[in-house]
Design goal:
215 residues, Arc Repressor Mutant, Yope Regulator, Chain: A, 2 domains, six-stranded antiparallel sheet, 6 helices, 48% helix
Length: 215
């Protein structure tokens, strides 16, 4: 949706209250006023669509005790923390960023590790090499390594079917559950590479066969 600058007259007390609420919601004054007006005239904005997707993702991940939903840094972002089955129980973070435009590209998923362990970083890099190999076999986007223990992957609709918010949320949640389980499988069996490759390949195949919508 196109945005333009308009001149409107508001009471100072109203602006003060809006600013206070915008601060609590971690958004801007303009964005909050835009959302309030859109709700009043029953118009669905991209921000509302993203919120609906994130709310649905949170519901779908509820019940998985190793997932911790983090406070949103922005309307277009959602962050989820998960504990690795490795010494000292390090954590990784899944950061979802959704695009405002309604194209085949939904957004981006970033996995972030803050570990200082070179060994753990090498393990994670090896995992993403294996996972990207499986993804390339079914023509899905692979993972790209970023600086500082970050891996990034585009989220792209792979079919022309149902693409409403609920369907997108299901696709994202299913993928996060699949890759999180894949990482846990990797750390459970990485001392036996032949067995690991078999288990990880079978797990990825089960995800592909069970997923209705792929991203």
């Amino acid at each position: 949706m196109k945005k333009s600058v308009y001149s409107i007259v508001l009471m100072d007390d109203v602006v003060e209250a809006v600013d206070a609420l915008a601060y609590r919601l971690n958004t801007s004054r303009s964005n909050l006023i835009n959302q309030i007006l859109a709700e009043k005239v029953a118009l669905i904005t991209p921000e509302m669509q993203m919120k609906n997707v994130f709310d649905q993702v949170e519901k779908l991940l509820d019940g998985y005790s190793h997932f911790q939903i983090q406070p949103q840094a922005a309307d277009c972002m959602m962050s989820i923390r998960s504990v690795l089955r490795y010494k000292y129980n390090p954590t990784i973070r899944y950061a979802i960023t959704l695009d405002r435009s309604n194209n085949k590209r939904i957004g981006e998923l970033k996995i972030i590790s803050r570990t200082q362990s070179d060994v753990l970083q090498r393990y994670l890099s090896h995992f993403f090499e294996l996972w990207s190999m499986y993804e390339s076999q079914v023509q899905l986007p692979g993972w790209k390594i970023d600086q500082g223990g970050k891996w990034t992957r585009e989220l792209i609709r792979q079919d022309e079917g149902r693409h409403d918010g609920e369907a997108v949320a299901n696709a994202i949640a299913d993928y996060i559950k699949a890759i999180d389980k894949g990482i846990k499988i990797y750390f459970e069996y990485n001392d036996n590479l032949s067995y690991l490759n078999n288990e990880l390949s079978n797990h990825y195949g089960q995800y592909i066969n069970s997923s209705i919508i792929r991203v």
